[in-house]
Write a structure and sequence with these properties.
CATH architecture of chain B: Alpha-Beta Complex
Distance between the termini of chain A: 43 Å
Shape of chain A: globular
Number of helices of chain B: 3
Structural class of chain A: mainly beta
Distance between the termini of chain B: 42 Å
Number of strands of chain A: 8
Number of strands of chain B: 11
Largest interface: A-B, 27 and 26 residues
Number of domains of chain A: 1
Oligomer: heterodimer
Number of domains of chain B: 1
Helix content of chain B: under 10%
Number of helices of chain A: 1
CATH topology of chain B: Sulfite Oxidase, Chain A, domain 2
Radius of gyration of chain A: 13 Å
CATH superfamily of chain B: Oxidoreductase, molybdopterin-binding domain
Strand content of chain B: 25-35%
Largest sheet of chain B: 6 strands, mixed
Shape of chain B: globular
Strand content of chain A: 35-45%
CATH class of chain B: Alpha Beta
Helix content of chain A: under 10%
Order of helices and strands of chain A: EHEEEEEEE
Strand order of the largest sheet of chain A: 1-4-5-6-7
Order of helices and strands of chain B: EEEHEEHEEHEEEE
Largest sheet of chain A: 5 strands, antiparallel
Chain lengths: ~90, ~200
């Protein structure tokens, strides 16, 4: 009964740029994800991010399934990508 | 007045009775959500216990409301560090919901409308430690706080008290739920500050 619908307090995927920059050497918000739930593909920046929670929860803008989760501990960052079939990262200069 | 001033000691967090380490007191009720708030019509609400052999016991809203309910006053502790003391709830004890269920399972996965899950050991659901709550502070539980009904398991961090709860799957082995799979602690005891995996 969860619909992709009113986003309420949610942000877009650019809100994760800082946290993801600590994990990857590239700007992941420019990468493209494929949703494991519906195979929708788009830029990470288009994900719908719920941030008023114990971590960042990024949902597919098409089906609202969770595509990735980021949890920050004081000395660690956890990235859960089970909702992503893949990330497509553009390489500079190619 | 004593010779030794108490100074600011009275404001130290650890000096507040009932406040676990690393927590601060709040008097409002913050809303944390990992997704859109599901709106569940009562005629579509159902709570289902599924055993490790696949046997199901379920209640619709009318049947659930007919079960004996308890009023409880408990302290709640969110892993994001706020605690709220003396909260009042009304709900059905898991002892009641699991009374006639035959199972040898040691673990459970709690499920919610909207897809949220959290793992809780069976023994933590029993003996007056957990409820499916449908009233808060004397009023029907609002959707933002998990209504029509949420799990209430106050001796663990509040992410275990799943909003919009709709069932419990009994399991022989422990599996991580939504936040546990993403780095949070499998058990989540606020008094031992079990916030993240490895704590």
């Amino acid at each position: 009964m969860t619909q992709p619908g009113p986003r309420g307090a949610a942000l877009d995927g650019n809100a994760m740029a800082g946290d993801l920059r600590e994990i990857f050497a590239v700007d992941v918000t420019a990468a493209r994800f494929m949703c494991a739930g519906c195979t929708h593909t788009d830029a990470v920046a288009t994900l719908v991010v719920w941030h008023q929670s114990p971590g960042l929860v990024a949902r597919c803008p098409n089906c609202s399934d969770v595509v990735l989760r980021v949890v920050r501990a004081p000395d660690r960052v956890y990235l859960d990508l089970r909702g992503s079939v893949r990330l497509e990262v553009p390489l500079e200069g190619s | 007045m004593g010779i030794i001033s108490r100074g600011f000691g009275g404001r130290r967090r650890e000096s507040v009775p009932g406040l676990p380490p690393g927590q601060y007191l709040t008097h409002d009720f913050p809303v944390l959500s990992a997704g859109p708030t599901p709106r569940i019509p009562l005629d579509r609400w159902r709570f289902t216990v599924t055993t490790e052999t696949g046997e199901k016991t379920s209640w619709n809203w009318t049947e659930f409301q007919a079960l004996p309910a308890e009023d409880v006053t408990v302290d709640i502790h969110c892993v994001t560090k706020w605690s709220k003391l003396g909260t009042t709830w009304r709900g059905v004890s898991l002892d009641t919901l699991l009374a006639d269920v035959e199972s040898a399972a040691d673990y459970t996965m709690v499920h919610s409308f909207g897809g949220y899950t959290t793992n809780v050991p069976m023994e933590d659901l029993l003996d007056g430690k957990a409820w499916v709550a449908y009233k808060f502070d004397g009023e029907d539980l609002e959707p933002e706080h998990g209504g029509p009904a949420r799990l209430l398991i106050p001796h663990l961090y509040f992410w275990k008290s799943a909003k919009w709860v709709n069932g419990v799957q009994l399991m022989p082995d422990d599996d991580p739920g939504f936040w546990e799979a993403a780095g949070y602690h499998m058990y989540g005891d606020p008094w031992r500050e079990q916030r993240y995996q490895g704590d």
